[in-house]
Amino acid sequence: MTQAITRAQGAAAPKGPGLWTVRGGIPRQVYWALALLGLLLPLLGWWLATSVNGADAVFLPSPAKVWARAQDWWGDGGLTGDIAISVYRVVGGFALSAVIALPLGLMIGTFRTVQALLEPLTDFIRYMPAVAFIPLVMLWIGIDESSKIAIIFIGTFFQMVLMVAEDVRRVPLAQIEAAQTMGATRTELIEKVIFPSAKPALLDTLRVTMGWAWTYLVVAELVAANSGLGYAILKAQRFLQTDKIFAGILLIGLIGLITDQLFRLAHRKAFPWLYLKG
Known about the structure:
Blueprint: H1 2-12, H2 28-51, H3 63-75, H4 78-110, H5 112-126, H6 134-140, H7 145-169, H8 173-181, H9 186-215, H10 217-220, H11 229-238, H12 242-270
Helix pairs in contact: 3-12, 4-5, 4-7, 4-9, 5-7, 7-9, 9-12, 11-12
């Protein structure tokens, strides 16, 4: 009898989450091991393709050649300057987008009148390719740093506005109605209910759109640039320096990955209650 009860209790005991539990957690060590594996497997495939199959370096340089090119690029003093100016352009365009898009998206997501007035126009413009604006940007702004920032702004702003508005619309209506019942004014609803409730989603939106800002870097540096990672990639294309093209692309990806992780860390620090295990 005792053994039967013990077996029944063992069968009823909940099991810990497995690796394939839907939206379940996994140990941090397992997560980082899988993340490292996900990064190393493409590198291994790349190395095999160039060493075993003997791919032509003009089409696919080996990881060793790309690493050597990156070291040469660093050694001649050009890489640090290219990274610095590219980061400046991306951050400048992204920050300008955020400063305007956050309040505008907040208004579109809060008031139907503002949504009706501005959302169709924003939807219309966001489908226009940013590269098509290059001639107009050069005509209106010139070819200095402001033109590169403007291209990145155009590429990110309209998407950011719509994503911010959608984040605001996801704020539960019950919270707004409860605050209205307690006598909150429109300003108080925005400042103390809607914006605080939407902040976690808004920070995620900024993280995603920062990635878009980096994707528009090469486009922005088409505008009479003589420095930057995008310019270096385009210049290397003219001379068939495929190893330098790979190095530039990988550097942009690495900087983007670091930026993304910093946003994720900021999200965890700003909203720690979202990461509490229930």
